[in-house]
Structures are given as structure tokens and as C-alpha cells.
Amino acid sequence: MFQTRKPLILASGSPRRRELLARLSIDFEVIVPQVDETGQAGESPEAYVLRMARLKAAAVGAAHAGSWVVAADTIVILDGDVLTKPGGRREAVDMLMRLSGRQHEVRTAWCLSCDAEGVCLSDSCVSRVRFRTFGRDWAKAYVDTGEPMDKAGGYGIQERGGVLVERIDGSYSNVVGLPLSELVGLLEEHRIVSPRSAL
To answer: Is 73 assigned a catalytic role?
Structure first.
């Protein structure tokens, strides 16, 4: 769908983000950033996720000044609490039970930067997701698949976790981990990618 005109790096270890970009025929290199993801005292969820995206982009961009870098960070927010990746099976089940029958927010922050061109753009996108009401047996069965363990909020909407979701208000790709509409619009604006046409 798109052709890539400038060197592009995805600063992420997420296979889901890789799949989202790859489906659009965008060419990119993957470099996993090494950053400290510890929150700061008094930091809001919105400020945290934006700082993480910028930090990841800077960590990779420092060694690749001539390339454009895309970085992102996704969090799940419920009652003002940030639900990160579960630390174990019990925590994953408890997390899912907190989400059962309720609406939560999924916020993904992104950063597009190029050191050589002096560009660093960042923003975040929020989607609201309502889970169906389910019992602990559902939560345990889902956790037994192993799928929740590497995902913020303990579920993957694009995989088996989609069965838990009753409704989404906002961007689906944002919930997966990369708000494509906003990001690809910027990639085109900076002539990093352009639509591919056979006509």
C-alpha cells in the first residue's frame, strides 16, 4: 500500500507493532530500545506514556541520527491506575477480574523523530474499551493460554482476548499498540512514505 522513501526504524520489541506497520508494506528496521520504564513520583499516566515514547525514540535515535525513528508506549488505565504487564498468573487473573464488566482506557503515546533533521514529534491517542462481564473461570482459562503475560492490562484484543471485549470507542489499532491513522499521516507529511499505486 505504501512505499518507503527514507530510512525508518521501529524502536519497539512489540510483534504487534511490527505487524501493524508491515501490513501496510512499509519497510523498516527494528531496534529494541533499552530504557528505564520506572514511573516518576507524581507523574500522571498521560505524562508517563508520553515520556516513555520519547525516551525510546531518543535511545535509538542517538545512534542512528540519519534515520527516522518511530517509538510507542501503550498503557491501560482503570480508576486512575496504570495496569502494566502482569507479573504472574495470579496477578493476570486479578487484573482481568478488575476489568470485567467495566470500561477502561487504552492510551498509546508515539514519537516520530530524526536527529539529523531536528524533528521530534509526539502525542498520544486514547480509546475506551468495555469488557463483557465474565467470571473467574473465563479469566483463568484465558490466562492459561499464556497470551496475557506480555501485554499491558493483561489482554490482547487482536488475539483470543478479543472475546472479552464488548465495545470499543476510538481507534482499534491504538488498542493493539500503534494509532495508525495519526502516525501514517505524519510519515506521509514528512515524505518518509508515500502511497504506492500501480496505475
So the answer is: yes
